[in-house]
């Protein structure tokens, strides 16, 4: 059997692999700016020409983009499953909201399960930070900011996905981040109606989910994540029906006065 020579790996190949791993595992996130060339070369312990070659190759693959004013960024569209026009279509359809919640129930249950099994101390610290930011939004009942609450909620669930150490789950959740964020904002706007009971219910569910994950109770974490989405579905369904009943009453009243 003929044995060919083994070609030594080029330094640029190693840098490409390292950067690709960082993107895949979520260390470098879509839209994030790479450190300056000099700083990154020092970090990797490589020459700037080798780094420059690796960056050019990643840009050719569509993983990195250059922006006016300098600097390289991770492509924002990485892992995006939905285009912006489609998101706009789905946002205005109640059935799509239901479908998204059903999808979240399945996806986030698995994320919570694996996060409870695999979260490192670093993951738990990041999850705690996201959890405390969300709780701070809930506790600020005198100055509620629906947009801020939606973003904080989505970031909490994204932190769980990161802690799952499953890159497919992570990038599916991240690819849906804008839709998830918009969904959460719409949910908050539609379901809270600033009732203490609903807010307290959500606060308790997130607390239970956070504790189950950080204490390594995987099956419990999956169950709590599922119950949380079911709770949101139930409240939203009741809100939707109440809104329809009110519209029907108003139409009847208007007709009787005409």
From TrEMBL:
Tree of life domain: Bacteria
Every copy of the HTH gntR-type domain together lies at: 9-77
Alphabetically list the UniProt keywords.
Answer: DNA-binding, Repressor, Transcription, Transcription regulation
Transcription regulation as a keyword? Answer: yes
- SUPFAM superfamilies given in the database record: GntR ligand-binding domain-like, Winged helix' DNA-binding domain
| Coiled-coil region | none
Is this entry keyworded Transcription? yes
- CDD domains cross-referenced by the UniProt entry: WHTH_GntR (cd07377)
Q: Cross-referenced InterPro entries, in alphabetical order?
A: GntR_C, TF_FadR/GntR_C, Tscrpt_reg_HTH_GntR, WH-like_DNA-bd_sf, WH_DNA-bd_sf
Entry-linked PANTHER family: PYRUVATE DEHYDROGENASE COMPLEX REPRESSOR, TRANSCRIPTIONAL REGULATOR, GNTR FAMILY
Q: State what protein this is by name.
A: Pyruvate dehydrogenase complex repressor
């Amino acid at each position: 059997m003929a044995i060919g020579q083994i070609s030594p790996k080029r330094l640029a190949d190693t840098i490409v692999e390292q950067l690709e791993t960082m993107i895949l595992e979520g260390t470098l996130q879509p839209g994030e700016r790479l450190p300056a060339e000099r700083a990154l070369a020092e970090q990797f312990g490589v020459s700037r020409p080798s780094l420059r070659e690796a960056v050019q190759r990643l840009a050719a693959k569509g993983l990195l983009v250059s922006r006016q004013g300098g600097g390289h960024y991770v492509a924002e569209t990485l892992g995006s499953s939905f285009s912006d026009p489609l998101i706009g279509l789905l946002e205005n359809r109640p059935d799509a909201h239901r479908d998204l919640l059903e999808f979240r129930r399945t996806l986030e249950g698995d994320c919570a399960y694996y996060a409870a099994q695999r979260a490192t101390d670093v993951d738990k610290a990041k999850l705690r930070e996201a959890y405390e930011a969300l709780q701070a939004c809930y506790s600020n009942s005198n100055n509620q900011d629906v947009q801020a609450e939606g973003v904080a909620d989505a970031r909490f669930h994204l932190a769980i996905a990161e802690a799952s150490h499953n890159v497919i789950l992570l990038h599916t959740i991240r690819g849906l981040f804008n839709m998830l964020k918009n969904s959460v904002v719409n949910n908050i706007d539609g379901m809270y109606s600033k009732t203490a009971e609903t807010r307290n219910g959500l606060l308790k569910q997130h607390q239970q989910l956070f504790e189950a994950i950080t204490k390594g109770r995987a099956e419990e974490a999956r169950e709590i994540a599922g119950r949380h989405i079911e709770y949101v579905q139930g409240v939203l369904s009741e809100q939707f029906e109440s809104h329809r009943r009110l519209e029907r009453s108003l139409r009847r009243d208007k007709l009787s006065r005409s």
